[in-house]
Design brief:
Elements lengths: L1 H18 L8 H14 L3 E3 L2 E4 L3 E13 L2 E14 L5 E5 L3 E7 L7 E10 L2 E7 L2 E20 L2 E2 L3 E17 L7 E8 L1 E9 L7 E8 L2 E8 H8 L12 E8 L2 E9 L2 E9 L2 E8 L2 E17 L6 E14 L8 E14 L1 H7 L10 E13 L16 E15 L2 E11 L8 E10 L1 H10 L5 H14 L1 E2 L5 E8 L5 E3 L2 E2 L2
Antiparallel strand pairs: 1-3, 2-3, 3-4, 4-5, 4-6, 5-8, 6-7, 7-9, 8-9, 9-10, 9-11, 11-12, 11-13, 12-15, 13-14, 14-17, 15-16, 16-19, 17-18, 18-20, 19-20, 20-21, 21-22, 22-23, 23-24, 24-25, 25-26, 26-28, 27-28, 28-29, 29-30
InterPro entries: DUF2125
Keywords: Signal
Protein name: DUF2125 domain-containing protein
C-alpha cells in the first residue's frame, strides 16, 4: 500500500511544483495560498523559510514539501521559487537548481532506508494562464536530469550505487478545471525526444561483483486524466476504504523505441540480458471498476547470456501484447476481469534450436500465442488496503470465464478454441460448469517430426495418437481434430463425450 501512496505522492508533487495552477490576473500570493491548499488536500505540507513580495510578484525561499504516509516520508526541497506576473496576464514560474528529494522508508521493524536524489533542469520554462475554473499551464525544458546522491540503511552507507536518468526536449501542458480542490479535474499531455539512464551498484562490503542497468527510450508522448479528489483519496486511504463512484486515474503512453541491458556479476557466475523494440504503447487505468494494464510493442528482440547455460538464448517477436484487468474492491455483485496475451511472429535463435533438434526435423516457422479471456470475479478482500501477504485464502472467487479466443501455432501444428464456464460461489477448489470447443491441425505430422528428431519415442507417439482418436473426432480436412470438453455439475469432465473424470 505504501508504494502506491508514494507513487501518487511523487506525481502530485511534480504537478504542484513543475506546473502549479494559477489564475490570470491573480496576484502571486493567492497562487502560493492555492499551492498550500492543494498540497494539504493530497496529504502534503508546503512551507517556506520566507515569502516576500517583489516588484513583479513573489519570492518563495527555502520551500519544502513534506509528506509522511504509511511508513514512508518524502521531502522535496527547493532553495527558491520566483512567481512573476506578466503584462499579458500570464504567470511565469522560475525554480532554482537543483531540486533535492529525500525519501525515508521503513517497513514494520525493518531498517530505515534513506535515498537522497537531485533533480537538475536546463532551460526550464513554466507559463500559467487561464481564468478561474479553467486553468491552463505549459512547461518545457531542454533537459531534466535525476541522479542519486546518497543511500543509507539505518544511518550507515549502503555501498556504492549510482542512479542517473536524463530526459531531453521535455514539454507538457496541464488543464485544471473546477472551482474548488474537491471538484478540480486534471487533464495533461507531455512529450520528450529521448530518455536515457543507468543504475550502477557495487556488491556490498567490498565483495566482488555488482549490478548494472542501462536504458534508452526514443521520442515519447503521453496523456493523462484524473482529479484532485482522486489523488486526495489515495493519500488518505485506510484499511476499510472503498473506491468511491466516478473515481478515475488514466494514463496512456506511446513511444518509438526502447532498449535496455542488464548485467549481474557474482562470484563464479555472470548474467547478461538485453532487450529492444521499435516502439510500443502502455495504458494504465485505476477506476472504481479496478486496475487495468494494457501493454504492446512491435519488433521485439531479447537475449540472455549466462555462464550457467551452454548457448545464448535469443527470442524475437513481430509484436507482443498484454492486457490485464482485475477488480480491487469487494462489491455486492461480481466485477469484470480480463486477461489477454498476444504474441505473434515468435522465433528463437538457431543455436538454441540446434541443441534440441540438430537434424532440423521440426519446422522453424514463427510461432503465435493468443489467449483472450474475459469474465466475472467476486472479490473477497480489499487489495488496496493492508499487506497482501497477510491475506488468508484467495482474494477472490471466479464466477464466469469466457474464452473468447485461443490460438497456438508452433512447429507446424495449431490449436484453436473458445468456450464459456461458470463457477458456483463458496468453492474451496473452483469447479467449472460449461464447455470448451477445441480444434487442432497438424498434430499427427508434428508427432512424426518429434519421433524423427528423437524427442519422442514411437510407443509414446502411438499412445498420443490413440488417445486423440478416442477423445476427439476427425475435422473437415486431413490431419485435423475437433473436440468439446464439457465440465459437468459435480466435477465430471468429458471430451468428445468420453469421461475424463
Amino acid at each position: 500500500m505504501s508504494k502506491l501512496k508514494t507513487f501518487s505522492l511523487s506525481l502530485s508533487t511534480i504537478a504542484l511544483l513543475a506546473a502549479a495552477p494559477a489564475l490570470a490576473d491573480v496576484d502571486a500570493r493567492e497562487i502560493w495560498d492555492e499551492w498550500q491548499a492543494q498540497g494539504a488536500a493530497i496529504g502534503q505540507t508546503l512551507s517556506a523559510t520566507s515569502v516576500t513580495d517583489t516588484d513583479t510578484g513573489l519570492r518563495i525561499s527555502g520551500m519544502t514539501v513534506l509528506a509522511d504516509q504509511g511508513g514512508s516520508t518524502s521531502t522535496v526541497e527547493i532553495d527558491e521559487i520566483t512567481l512573476n506576473e506578466n503584462a499579458d496576464g500570464t504567470l511565469s514560474v522560475e525554480m532554482s537548481d537543483p531540486v533535492r528529494i529525500t525519501t525515508v522508508s521503513q517497513i514494520d521493524d525493518g531498517p530505515a532506508v534513506r535515498i537522497d536524489m537531485g533533480v537538475r533542469h536546463q532551460g526550464l520554462n513554466i507559463t500559467v494562464s487561464g481564468d478561474a475554473g479553467a486553468r491552463d499551464y505549459e512547461y518545457d525544458a531542454d533537459s531534466i536530469t535525476i541522479s542519486s546522491e546518497q543511500m543509507t540503511v539505518d544511518g550507515q552507507s549502503a555501498g556504492e550505487m549510482n542512479i542517473a536518468a536524463t530526459i531531453t526536449d521535455f514539454a507538457g501542458q496541464h488543464m485544471l478545471t473546477g472551482d474548488t480542490v474537491e471538484t478540480t479535474e486534471i487533464t495533461s499531455s507531455s512529450s520528450f525526444s529521448g530518455m536515457s539512464g543507468t543504475i550502477d551498484a557495487a556488491a556490498p562490503n567490498g565483495q566482488d561483483g555488482g549490478f548494472k542497468l542501462s536504458f534508452n527510450m526514443g521520442p515519447m508522448t503521453s496523456t493523462g486524466s484524473g482529479s484532485m479528489f482522486a489523488l486526495a483519496f489515495i493519500s488518505q486511504m485506510s484499511d476499510d476504504t472503498s473506491v468511491p463512484e466516478n473515481f478515475s486515474l488514466l494514463s496512456d503512453l506511446e513511444y518509438e523505441r526502447l532498449s535496455y541491458e542488464m548485467t549481474v556479476d557474482e562470484a563464479g557466475s555472470s548474467f547478461n540480458m538485453s532487450f529492444a523494440n521499435e516502439g510500443g504503447e502502455m495504458g494504465v487505468a485505476l477506476t472504481e471498476g479496478g486496475l487495468t494494464y494494457d501493454l504492446s510493442a512491435v519488433n521485439v528482440d531479447a537475449a540472455i547470456l549466462t555462464n550457467e547455460f551452454p548457448a545464448p538464448i535469443e527470442i524475437s517477436a513481430d509484436s507482443t501484447g498484454f492486457l490485464f484487468t482485475l477488480p480491487l474492491m469487494p462489491e455486492d455483485e461480481p466485477s469484470d476481469m480480463a486477461l489477454r496475451l498476444d504474441y505473434r511472429g515468435l522465433e528463437v535463435n538457431e543455436a538454441l534450436w540446434s541443441m534440441i533438434d540438430p537434424g532440423q526435423a521440426i519446422p522453424r516457422d514463427p510461432a503465435t500465442l493468443i489467449v483472450d479471456i474475459t469474465g466475472k470475479v467476486q472479490m473477497l478482500v480489499n487489495l488496496l488496503a493492508g499487506d497482501p501477504t497477510a491475506f488468508q485464502g484467495p482474494p477472490g472467487e471466479l464466477r464466469e470465464v469466457t474464452l473468447n479466443d485461443l490460438q497456438i501455432n508452433a512447429a507446424g501444428a495449431s490449436l484453436e478454441g473458445e468456450g464459456d464456464l461458470e463457477f458456483a460461489p463458496g468453492q474451496m477448489v473452483p469447479m467449472p460448469v460449461g464447455t470448451i470447443d477445441l480444434r487442432a491441425a497438424g498434430l499427427n505430422a508434428l508427432l512424426d517430426r518429434l519421433t524423427s528428431a528423437g524427442l519422442l519415442p514411437e510407443p509414446q507417439a502411438a499412445m498420443v495418437r490413440g488417445m486423440s482418436g478416442m477423445f476427439a473426432r476427425p475435422g473437415p480436412t486431413a490431419d485435423t481434430l475437433e473436440t468439446t470438453i464439457e465440465f459437468q455439475p459435480g466435477g465430471g469432465i468429458t471430451a468428445n463425450g468420453i469421461p475424463l473424470q
